[in-house]
Specification:
mainly alpha, two-stranded antiparallel ribbon
Length: 315
Amino acid sequence: MLMLIQNEWMKIFRRPGTLVMVGLLLLMVMITGSVIKYQQNQTTVQKQINWKADLQQQVDQSKQQLEKVSKVRVPSIKRSIALNQYQIKHNLNPNQKYSMWDFVSDGSGLIQLAGLFTIIIAAGIVAQEFNWGTIKLLLIRPISRGRLLLSKYITTILFALTMLVILFIFSLITGYLLFGTPETVVPYLKYVNGKVAEQSMISHLVVFYGMRSVTMLMLSTMAFMISAVFRNSSLAIGISIFLMFTGSELTMLLASKFHWAKYILFANTDLSQYFDGVPMVEGMTFHFSLAMLVSYFIMFQVLAFAVFKKRDVAA
């Protein structure tokens, strides 16, 4: 299996397009950092001396809103109240200078770009073998079709992880060079089950990047499935990219009117909604979303392996 994965890995990075993808990702990190740095130089940041009074005023206003807003907004308002009260109690000034941790967090938006590149790899790793006719050379070896397909999927996931690691590390380096470290060590405040807890920024960002990558994982798996079933990389790329940019928005529209929208894939890919937001559909839980993601994942894999094992490659 390791030899198969190594072979697939070498085929991916021998393509000039792969190096272009990595280069574009690094370039976008630098451009993002330069734009934020330029914006900072054009604005003057005023330090708030009475920040505790400002937070207390926000708490009072939020408490008044609780009696007027709909049930959907209540959890987010309670979260805001709890976080503000915790900062006041523990003397945690929220008005900190923009630092490398903030840049790494903002750089998570580029996970979508890394996901786009991973979808391209996933969509072509099987389909192109059929288009080029090299699939016959692979299948004449004493290797089962299941192991062959599994090696290709594992390579795709390794590529996705590599892109994430590159993005995270390069964002960290760029953020340090452009913005430096924070003036004071300020933990990340997470709100879980009605309670506020402190978490180190590095561990928070690692978990945050992982949660933001769920969509990339699921769409790459779907693109891989389409590639194996239909042997068409263009179809796999087109459908996956379309859903990447529109899936969440369309699901939100359906969720506002239909309760069954919680069973749609994109209602469950954003796991951070259970820690830093409000579930898309009332009644959804973290474990429910995990179960739905596992169900979709198994469905994609079953389709891919079942069809690939029975695929006639004689033509």
